[in-house]
Amino acid sequence: MPVASLESIREAIGTEIGASDWIEVTQDRIDAFAEATEDRQFIHTDPALAVQTPFGGTIAHGFLSLSLLSRMGADVMLVPETTKMAVNYGLDRVRFLAPVKSGKRVRGRFVLKDMTEKSPGQYLMTFAVTVEIDGEDKPALLADWLGLIIT
């Protein structure tokens, strides 16, 4: 995660802080997620059947796309230079807007919406994240993601 001063992080509130690297959503990744979550619905795991759906092939689980926020955030989420620990604090809002087809690439665009000091040395940061699908107009998802930084 990029390191910055508390002052420069506060100055970034309301602005886009960056976009992550692209991540390929392979069929192997989808299958591994299906096994880990025991969600083996055919639209995710059976290319022969999924090709007959309006999707035209297998698609990633919405929660797989959401889970990639952790990887995406590591590229761009600003943390104070004195950070001892950063933890996922939850989500305020998530909307799945478009399916991610197997073989597509996704990336996250992050806007720092807010940063509040919950207690001395603990900062709650809110990021508006748009997960884009390479080559497509509609994003895969929108989310307000919360992170707690302990300094």
List the secondary-structure elements in sequence, H or E.
Answer: EHEEHHHHHEEEEE
Please give the count of helices.
6
CATH uppermost class: Alpha Beta
In round numbers, the mean pLDDT is: 96
CATH architecture: Roll
Low-confidence stretches: none
How many β strands by DSSP?
8
Strand content: 35-45%
CATH-assigned homologous superfamily: Hotdog Thioesterase
Helix content: 25-40%
Write the CATH fold name: Thiol Ester Dehydrase, Chain A
| Structural shape | elongated
Q: Please give the domain count.
A: 1
Distance between the termini: 14 Å
Main sheet summary: 6 strands, antiparallel
Structural class: alpha+beta
Q: Nearest-angstrom radius of gyration?
A: 17 Å
Explain what you see:
The protein is of the alpha+beta class and 151 residues long. It has one domain: Hotdog Thioesterase (Thiol Ester Dehydrase, Chain A, Roll). It has helices at residues 6-11, 27-37, 42-45, 47-50, 62-67, 69-76, and strands spanning 3-4, 16-19, 23-24, 79-80, 85-96, 105-119, 122-133, 141-150. The strands form 2 sheets. Strands 2, 3, 5, 6, 7 and 8 form a 6-stranded antiparallel β-sheet that branches. The protein is elongated and about 55 Å long. The model has no long low-confidence stretch (mean pLDDT 96).
